[in-house]
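Dear colleague,

Following up on Tuesday's group meeting, I ran the structure prediction for the two-component complex that the binding team flagged. I've pasted the input sequences exactly as they went in, so you can double-check that nothing got truncated or mislabelled along the way. The structure tokens for the whole assembly follow below. Feel free to forward this to whoever is handling the docking comparison.

Inputs:
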Amino acid sequence: MSRVLVPCHVKSTVALQVGDMRTSQGRPGVLVVDVTFPNVAPFEEITFKNYYTAFLSIRVRHHTPLHTPSKWVTCLRDHCLMPDPHSEEGAQEYVSLFKHQMLCDMSRVLELRLILRQPSPLWLSFTVEELQIYQQGPKSPSLTFPKWLSHPVSNEQPAPRLEGLPDPSRVSSEVQQMWALTEMIRASHTSTRIGRFDVDGCYDLNLLSYT
Amino acid sequence: MLQEESDLSLIIAQIVQKLKGSNLYAQLERQAWACLQRPEIRLESLKEDIKEFFKASGWEKKLQNAVYSELNVYPLPSHPSAPPEHLKEPLVYMRKAQGSWEKRILKSLNSMCTELSIPLARKRPVGEQKELLNKWNEMGTDEPDLSLFRPVYAPKDFLEVLINLRNPNYENGDSLSFRTHLGLIQVPLKVKDIPELKECFVELGLNTGQLGIDDSTQVPPELFENEHVRIGQKVLVQQDSAAAQQYIRQGSPTALRAELWALILNISSQPEDVKLTASNDDYYFVFEDYLYQVLLCFSRDTSVLSHFAYNSASPPKSYIRGKLGLEEYAVFYPPNGVIPFHGFSMYVAPLCFLYHEPYKLYQIFREMYVRFFFRLHSISSHPSGIVSLCLLFETLLQTYLPQLFYHLREIGAQPLRISFKWMVRAFSGYLATDQLLLLWDRILGYNSLEILAVLAAAVFAFRAVNLMEVTSLAAAEAVLADLSTLKVMPLLQIFLFATVT
């Protein structure tokens, strides 16, 4: 489940608007952000911080072999980031989108195009920030179990499945994942400092600090 | 693994982590060790037998209640990239506003200390300590001279801050357009409308029995009240928090209320090691003493600091012996991080009617504070936060009583200026106590403070005829000055379910 940051170049946003941008009164409701990769990358996850974008579509251009022209394909259509475009809900949330949510295969991505839409005229601007793309990282060695635990020998007679019970191999893999998560959290958990109000039994205080 | 499953695993891992540090975990461990002596526990099926034992002895229920409590109080684990401030409050401009407000309070407190030449804190001299211990149970009668002290802030100061709250990315144009908010609150938070509120508060509907309506003297108790009390007793026997929370949406019988609240808030019956040296003599208690005891201990209770993880506010810091900036000398002040405001004790006072043992009273108050009351005096975008409550009140009034709203606005009596003080104190001190407790039953039952805004709008609707005739803010205040005769449940029911829209 580990992931690796993919180096990419995020171009500045381009607004799509009808008419002359300089003289027009209205604000653009559609923005486009292009993301290019120096190397062809297998896409796993994209994370970003939303800033008042209501809907997100993503189009992708795949790497095609031998000079066949690659076309733009939509891999995410109108994903809703703000349930009500006129109100604050979801406006500044951190979002992750995974490859299983995409409509097409994402193993050889050349370029990504994010199409941001905000139909409400109430907001002065909108965008997405802290854009990061990840690919699947190498499997962490501490999580691998002995082969006989995770992959029972195929010529063993499987025990008769009782009715109504979930598939044992699926349950065991989920339990493994949960165990790994618990271990991860336990390892990274810094014990919160117990609030104290005195130092060595002394609590002479004169002023409160502003920082 | 699909996203939903991995989210669930993360929540489970977070709750496990939380509960591992708790008293309940230690107790469960002890119980597990102790039950090994029992004949029904066999080595070959150790895990299953211990689980069976926990189920039969009621410990599984206690664990279920603890998990349910965690799910109710703590927000879901946020995105891994989100910094801790984001969990306190996701909107950057609200965080900044809360920070400025806190700075103002600190400045006010500091200047008061310098003016009066009083240190913020010092160790009590030994003589004074002895005196305090002796007088512990009669503190109300021996007040120190507080005449020079001003309250740190009053609710109306806080209201001014909320009125000036602005989103820098929002179209706050001067010219009146469809986007102008006609009330005092100018931030576009999402609030529910009446159809959504009807769905949310479905148990308050006309076809469901309510305490506060269907237990009045004219209604024969066989119709609803007797059965409701019977179910309440059953819920208490089962000791199930989730069932209690669902049950209390229809109100709690007076005799069962103290236990039901303790069950819902997951308060253990063991007295904690609190500094309340409760003497067990029978004495005639005066609430004033209780208030002093509870609030004194509350201000020193450092376990309250943990709620700042999900509170947009932050505890003030100070440095011992003037060693400004040196981290080893940094402490929180007050020890629980909460600076009280004028009227703060009103959060405790109604609870004195329910709990007679000081330690239970204290635990209930502390849990009520870290679950609900803190949201009433910090700036956040949470649906139960005071900003959302104010906006919900104004929106309900404007949408469903537009003539009244317009009239009050025209005469310079913005409705929020009158209802703000009710909501900030959760109506404590304004309603009759029995009505207030019926209202707080629903706060616990729905785990939300939105009912306060709905009640405020319902009160205005009830007195609409008189209010249409006033011509000044002072006159409007006079019409709404006395709420002590109001019956809250009929008001809420009529406003939500019986008003023609």
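The longest strand of chain B covers residues 317-319.

Cheers,
M.
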